[in-house]
Amino acid sequence: MVIETSKKKDKDPMHLQIVQTGEDGATRALPNATGPEKSILSSMMQEPTEYIGAAVEEHLTPDHFYVPSHGILYKILLELYEKNQPIELVSLTQLLKDRELLENLGGPSELTSIYTYSPTAAHFEHHLGIVKSKFVLRAVISSCTESIGKAYEDPDDVQNFLDEVEAKVFSIKEDSEVQGEVKVRDLIGGVIEILEQFMAGERGMEGTPTKYPKLDEMCKGLKPGETFIIAARPSMGKTSLMMNIVEHVAVDQGVPTLVFSCEMSSQQIVQRLLFSRARYGMGNLKPGLQPTKDELSRIMNASRDLTKAPLFIDDTPAITIGDVRAKARRKKRDENIGLIAVDYLQLMRSTSRQAEGSREREIAEISSGLKAIAKELAIPVIVLSQLNRGPEARGGAPRMSDLRESGSIEQDADLIGLLYREEYYNDSVTKGEEPDQDRENSLGKAELILAKNRNGPTGNVELTFLKELMRFETRAPESHG
């Protein structure tokens, strides 16, 4: 069998000509359904309010049509529908003629033929489903044909090539699915049940506990489908905080967790995890070190805990949002992961054409892509992010507006926590002066400022940062009397 590809002049990727030559020399056209295409167009022309609206709800686009002229006609119908202009045969014919598109459709007679093609719209939904199914098949053929061509080119990175192929196929599936509305009556029972559970004291945590009681109280745990942005200036400890949460989820609760580390290697991550859990200072790692018997025991216990933990680390640098999506889907399928953590957003990339030349657009695509992954896989996603120099300029606590490329991140996130350590900004630290009383009082103090909580209150989570252990612990509230 020989597969040949050639594009039509309109350069529509869904109109690739796939020629399969067998022993008998027979060829095959792409999957198509020209009859159902004409049928749904006929219904839309006769009853535009009803059926163009239905097509829009089903995310039908001009590319779904195999016949290019049908796609052109649908595009014009959409335009008139959106402008709330009347759609009838005479004015439609004149509009197409004015735009020099009428002959492309086959002239007035063909337009009339389409208009009268379906005497009843009773089978509109069925025919629409057929048209969409044929489009999906053409998309699969197009994607696989492109992949076959690249495979013959013998790519250097075969694993990356496989990830790209998988991402394309999953993208087709994702684009073909339509999330419809549901009736309130189908949901109200579940809401009442939750209320009753709270009243009976049977329900406290809705999501996965983070180990920080105040944070869990405000957000009710890390809930499926939510993204939690932890943002801070460099060296503030955001990776440590993220990994403290990951450790609690994966090691203490046994929830399969996937970490994408764009900055640190997997070896460094595991080293920090091990010694932090063993409460053994990283500063002790020097030539000729001699741990005590108790220290060695703690290290071995931590090692056993981590070995058993369902924790997976991917340290691909500058990973693309497409790769994250493909790998996350695979781990969800194979390991049923319950949490994803990403370190950090600004080190990721998007390879879409829309993102080329625009860093703001690229960050927006990555941010919305991570939110989409959380929703699709129904798991929480923790994402680290950098802050700009605003806190240094003000000499105070960070704000949401300090997020780099903040617009899209603020919009997509369900939770935004701004990590703040007072000693980091203390003048005596930056100037190298001797520690004063303020400096002494600020040592180890940290706050996670929950600046956004889509489904709950905001506020501050008081923490203590044990720098030598790279560990954040809950800090007891200070007494004021």
Task: Pick out the low-confidence regions.
Answer: 1-19, 427-432
CATH superfamily of the largest domain: P-loop containing nucleotide triphosphate hydrolases
N→C terminal distance: 86 Å
Structural class estimated from helices and strands: alpha/beta
Number of domain modules: 2
The count of helical stretches stands at 19
Largest sheet: 9 strands, mixed
Radius of gyration, in angstroms, nearest whole number:
29 Å
Tell me the strand percentage band. 5-15%
Mean pLDDT: 79
Outline type? elongated
Task: Provide structural commentary.
It is a single chain. By secondary structure, the protein is an alpha/beta fold. The protein has 2 domains: 34-176, DNAb Helicase, Chain A (Orthogonal Bundle); 205-474, 3-Layer(aba) Sandwich (Rossmann fold), CATH 3.40.50. The protein is 48% helix and 12% strand. The protein has 19 helices and 11 strands. The protein has helices spanning 34-46, 48-57, 68-82, 89-98, 107-115, 124-152, 158-176, 185-199, 213-219, 238-252, 266-277, 293-308, 321-335, 359-377, 390-394, 406-412, 422-425, 427-430, 437-442; strands at 2-4, 19-21, 227-232, 257-261, 311-314, 339-343, 381-386, 415-420, 445-453, 459-466, 471-474. The strands form 2 sheets. It has a 9-stranded mixed beta sheet with strand order 5-4-6-7-3-8-9-10-11, with helices on both faces. It has a two-stranded antiparallel ribbon with strand order 1-2. Strand 6, helix 14 (359-377) and strand 7 form a beta-alpha-beta unit. The longest helix has 29 residues, at 124-152. The chain is elongated, with a radius of gyration of 29 Å. It starts with a strand and ends in a 7-residue tail after the last strand. Residues 1-19 and 427-432 have low confidence and may be disordered.
